[in-house]
From TrEMBL:
Stretches for region Disordered: 71-160
Lineage summary: Bacteria, Pseudomonadati, Pseudomonadota, Betaproteobacteria, Neisseriales
Protein name per its UniProtKB record: Putative PROLIN-rich signal peptide protein
Top-level taxon of origin: Bacteria
Compositional bias ranges of the Basic and acidic residues kind: 100-111
């Protein structure tokens, strides 16, 4: 009996020391998202929009804001009739100006012709020297900015309190994006992860990392082309530590998909095929509109046929605010893959899960950075101490 107690005490002490060492080394994250029970999906109220690839320079904006508790705020909505009534100009002044122009035209027709030509060099230089905020904008640009501001205000006003929204509306697909995740295995937090996305309008690179608290780090690299049809993968490669593992090679010219641990398996390559990670970004770029026919998807180890259509709407509850998401759920013979895409945050995947008969592996976002601007980060929870 005493021997058993000593063994138990030593095991308990060793466990405490290991956890303290991890805490001191920074391996344990500052904040942990509690895993609530799965939520029932609602009917989709807002249609996901396909996004343009060309991205403007990243705006210098603060992080995402949490809508306040209480009545929804926002810009004051003016009655449409109020926009129609504008102050009348001084008719006599306008008429006098028109008479002056008419007289000038009669006496010097050449001068009026010059006035209709493009601005002189002096006026161009004066315009170029104006501050950026004062530069005259074209009518389409003004309309686009007004539409974005109106959409952002409407989106915020329609959202109940407690939801996270970006500081400004995001209507374009990112040139760069970084997402930080926590990884869960059968409901237990087992490490951290990250995703890096880059595209230049012609090619893309997508890197995914899993950093478990125990065991080797795992990394995936998906690369390919971008065009009118969206993402067209060329390759997917996996590593555990420094050792190369499963891979996939998309030979579009020969119409063959090579995959497997040794890359020695092959099947006929179908139009629209994706790897399991590029699929999330193809869905985001195309606003979830990939048709109803099953898609050819590979994990590098296997090849699946998945119909990818939106299953419903729900909330990604971070414990520090909610993010509205559209869930795409694909059911195979013995597994389920889910992508939770956030329409307010450029349709990026804030949660990815894969479930089979023996395990449930999940990535849950704790950081969203779009084009160099940190849009949201899960706040660290303060450490508490027992006071005696």
């Amino acid at each position: 009996m005493k021997t058993s107690l000593r063994v138990f005490a030593l095991a308990l002490l060793l466990s405490v020391l290991v956890h303290l060492a991890m805490l001191g080394s920074g391996l344990l994250p500052d904040a942990v998202i509690e895993l609530p029970p799965d939520q029932a999906l609602r009917k989709i109220d807002v249609k996901m929009q396909a996004l343009a690839l060309d991205t403007p320079a990243p705006p210098a904006v603060p992080t995402a804001r949490l809508l306040p508790v209480g009545p929804a705020g926002g810009a004051v909505a003016h009655h449409p009739a109020a926009r129609k009534h504008k102050p009348k100009r001084d008719a006599s002044g306008a008429q006098a100006k028109a008479d002056t122009v008419a007289d000038k035209a009669a006496e010097h027709p050449a001068d009026l012709a010059d006035a209709s030509q493009p601005a002189t060099e002096n006026s161009k230089r004066a315009e170029a020297s104006m501050p950026e905020a004062e530069q005259p904008a074209s009518k389409p640009e003004k309309h686009a900015k007004a539409a974005e501001a109106s959409a952002a205000a409407a989106s915020n006003n329609d959202r109940p309190a407690g939801y996270l929204t970006p500081a400004s509306a995001l209507h374009r697909f990112p040139a760069r994006a970084k997402l930080g995740y926590q990884t869960f295995y059968n409901g237990a937090m087992v490490g951290s992860g990250g995703l890096d996305w880059q595209q230049d309008g012609h090619r893309y690179t997508l890197e995914i990392r899993f950093n478990p608290l125990v065991g080797g780090n795992r990394r995936y690299l998906s690369q390919g082309q971008l065009g009118k049809q969206g993402l067209q993968p060329d390759s997917l490669q996996a590593w555990v530590g420094q050792e190369a593992k499963e891979s996939a090679r998309f030979d579009w010219s020969a119409g063959m998909l090579h995959f497997g641990d040794q890359g020695d398996k092959e099947v006929a390559l179908r139009s629209g095929a994706q790897d399991v990670f590029s699929l999330a970004f193809q869905l985001g770029l195309k606003g979830g509109q990939l048709g109803t026919a099953p898609l050819q998807i590979t994990t590098g180890k296997k090849v699946y046929d998945y119909p990818m259509t939106p299953s419903g709407e729900t909330d990604y509850d971070t414990g520090s605010g909610k993010i509205r998401v559209i869930v795409f759920r694909a059911k195979g013979e013995d597994d389920i893959t889910e992508f939770w895409l956030a329409p307010d945050f450029s349709n990026l995947p804030v949660r990815i899960s894969r479930i089979d008969k023996s395990k449930r592996v999940e990535l849950r976002a704790v950081l969203i950075n779009i084009d160099g601007t940190e849009q949201w980060r899960l706040p660290a929870r303060p450490m508490t101490r027992n006071n005696r």
